What does this fold into?
Amino acid sequence: QTPKVDIRGVMFRGGSEVLLVREKIDGGRWTLPGGWADVGYTPFEVAAKEVQEETGLVVAPVRLLALLDKRKHPHPPQPWYAYKAFIQCEIRGGSLLQETAETGGARWFTQDELRGIELSTERTTASQLKMLFKFPANPGLPAICD
It folds into this structure.
């Protein structure tokens, strides 16, 4: 079986906050905006499309931060094998929406605030968010790959 590819857009604000959305299909738990890769779209195009659909923001993808093997991270078991791509995006326009077809909220979080929220761990784990917070302070870090 060919692995699925899950693509997540990562937006930082001021280097100390990250944007998360509430995933309707997962009981309103928080995650980075994103979804399965679509045939005919590059990973950067998928990141931009998913971020706009789930947040209302128009973004420009700028950098692959990490490409991870989902089974090597504390996600709940799923019937399919998946790779996860985390792509840093810069906001270029749009308006942050609190309600979309897939999400029921969007909010900026500091790293400390993440400890008190329920994450959609099928999509994003606390350890992945902690890893991603290393990039704003160290923009020269190489992409992480399992």
In short: The mean pLDDT is 97. Strands lie at 4-10, 12-13, 17-23, 29-31, 34-36, 57-69, 82-94, 103-110, 144-145.
